[in-house]
Amino acid sequence: MRQKFDVGDLVYCRINQDWACPPGIIIQKSLINANMLKPEEWIWHVDEYRCRVRFTDGEDIWLRAKWLEHVNIEKEENDRPVSRTSRTPATEKR
To answer: Is residue 34 in a domain?
Structure first.
């Protein structure tokens, strides 16, 4: 079952405001308490698991899921979300 943070997600760590955390990719995840029966059938709470993150500076670190945030690829212009990818307008004929 897909968790809030899963392998392949682009994340950054928000544990310390003084650390200029580079973005990283989750390469592994693990339950902290391995007593759960059939963990693949449950949605884990962010306090229950940790993720191994490979940062863009090459460092691998195990971090609690509760300290992670997804990298938001979208940006805002004029108070409206704008994607970096170009999209073909629906009204345009091909």
So the answer is: yes
- pLDDT block averages, 10 residues each, the chain of length 94: 87 79 92 79 86 92 91 60 48 52
C-alpha neighbours within 13 Å on the C-beta side of residue 42:
12
In contact, 72 and 12? CB cutoff 8 Å: no
Strand partners, 82: 75
Q: Is residue 53 part of a domain?
A: yes
With respect to residue 91, please indicate whether it lies within any of the assigned structural domains. no
Sign, CA torsion 37/43/48/52: positive
**Side-chain-facing half-sphere of 8: CA atoms under 13 Å:** 2
Question: pTM here?
Answer: 0.68
In this structure, is residue 1 part of a structural domain? no
